[in-house]
Amino acid sequence: QGKQKKARKYAVMKRMISLRDERINPKDRAKPPPKKKEDPSALKEREVPQHPSCLFFQYNTQLGPPYHILVDTNFINFSIKAKLDLVQSMMDCLYAKCIPCITDCVMAEIEKLGQKYRVALRIAKDPRFERLPCMHKGTYADDCLVQRVTQHKCYIVATVDKELKRRIRKIPGVPIMYISRHRYNIERMPDDYGAPRF
């Protein structure tokens, strides 16, 4: 008579009790990880509603003259290279009063660039610019600008940075101002009839 074949069991694991189990002695038991204290100055990641109340279809009702324009570090530098007056060129682009807004982290970025960019720093300290205080740590402006326009849809973002543009395009109802052919242009700005102009 032949042997009876037994089917082999594959990938059978021995069950182990976890190190936090109550059956283990208290001295051998693993301690729970310590809770981190919340930093009040850290950028808070909040869940953003899919369709903000200020958007009427794709038209942002919070946008209107005088336009508040969040200026990025590289936008000021490129404006100097293209020999453009910031405030005047913004008004020529939008045909309305514009208030350039500059955050503390953008100011810190320009100050870090040193003596070579002293003209950009002098432009940024212009009294026509509105200063916005920052509560977060560090001087990385991109995250700060993205967080601001996500929470408050009343801004236009002025930047030449491709990565920041890509991030802002994902946020509905936020237009982008950029420099092309020695003049300012606007992307995703609705026209007078409320139909978005892409």
From TrEMBL:
Official protein name in the record: rRNA-processing protein FCF1 homolog
Family from the record: Belongs to the UTP23/FCF1 family. FCF1 subfamily.
Organism: Penelope pileata
InterPro entries tied to this protein: Fcf1/UTP23 (IPR006984), Fcf1_PIN (IPR037503), PIN-like_dom_sf (IPR029060), PIN_dom (IPR002716)
Region (Disordered): 18-47
Cellular location(s): Nucleus, Nucleolus
GO cellular component: small-subunit processome
Description of how the protein assembles with itself and partners: Part of the small subunit (SSU) processome, composed of more than 70 proteins and the RNA chaperone small nucleolar RNA (snoRNA) U3.
Domain PIN, first and last residues per copy: 67-166
Gene name linked to the record: Fcf1
Keyword entries, A-Z: Nucleus, Ribosome biogenesis, rRNA processing
GO biological process per UniProt: ribosomal small subunit biogenesis; rRNA processing
SUPFAM superfamilies: PIN domain-like
Primary localisation category: nucleus
Function according to Swiss-Prot or TrEMBL: Part of the small subunit (SSU) processome, first precursor of the small eukaryotic ribosomal subunit. During the assembly of the SSU processome in the nucleolus, many ribosome biogenesis factors, an RNA chaperone and ribosomal proteins associate with the nascent pre-rRNA and work in concert to generate RNA folding, modifications, rearrangements and cleavage as well as targeted degradation of pre-ribosomal RNA by the RNA exosome.
Superkingdom to which the source organism belongs: Eukaryota
One Pfam family from the record: Fcf1
UniProt KW Cytoplasm keyword: no
